[in-house]
Amino acid sequence: MNDTPTTPLTGKALLQKVKELSNLPRRETAKRCGYYTTTKNNQTRVNLTDFYDAVLAARGIPLSPEGPKDGRGREPTYRVSVHKNGQIVIGATYTEAMGLKSGDEFEIKLGYKHIHLIQVDADKASSNGKAEFDEEEEDSEEEE
């Protein structure tokens, strides 16, 4: 274990080491490149995710090309909680991701332990009106 570095390799040094160790399994390669931790029980855990991220970064592949535009705000967690006043706030991040605009309407369906929000589509409402109009025209034609 002498050849295992104490700090993880990055950049060209990492790519060179990966090439040298290409005959070894992935976990062993990651371990020898320094991507591991030792637990309280002296067990070694290999950090494959960190290793893969470092290899991609060393090759110049962006990991998250669509990051936050200005670096402010929080990452969406897709979890909400009920506020003291009984309201649930979804948040702008989610509505923007869905392409929702101010004034969009939803129908609320309550389940045993869930809530379904079903978007009321303006095009659907107008097509339903048209379908009813067509039926009326057919009735008047039959009478003639």
Shape annotation: elongated
Kindly state the percentage of residues in helix.
25-40%
The overall pLDDT average reads 76
Strand content: 5-15%
Q: Low-confidence stretches at least 5 residues in length (pLDDT < 50)?
A: 1-5, 125-144
- Terminal Cα span: 96 Å
Calculate Rg over CA atoms: 29 Å
- How many strands appear in the DSSP assignment? 4
Give the topology string: H per helix, E per strand: HHEEHHEEH
- State the strand order across the main sheet: 1-2
Largest sheet: 2 strands, antiparallel
Annotation field: number of helices: 5
The chain-level structural class is alpha+beta
Protein name: AbrB family transcriptional regulator
Pfam families: AbrB-like (PF14250)
Keywords: DNA-binding
Biased composition (Acidic residues): 133-144
Folded structure, characterized:
This protein is an alpha+beta fold and 144 residues long. It is built from five helices and four strands. It has helices spanning 11-20, 26-32, 48-58, 92-98, 122-143; strands at residues 36-38, 44-46, 105-110, 115-120. The strands form two sheets. The protein has a two-stranded antiparallel ribbon. The protein has a two-stranded antiparallel ribbon with strand order 3-4. Strand 1 and strand 2 (44-46) form a beta hairpin. Helix 1 (11-20) crosses helix 3. The model is unreliable at 1-5 and 125-144 (pLDDT under 50). Pfam families: AbrB-like. InterPro entries: AbrB-like, SpoVT-AbrB_dom, SpoVT-AbrB_sf. It comes from Floridaenema fluviatile BLCC-F154.
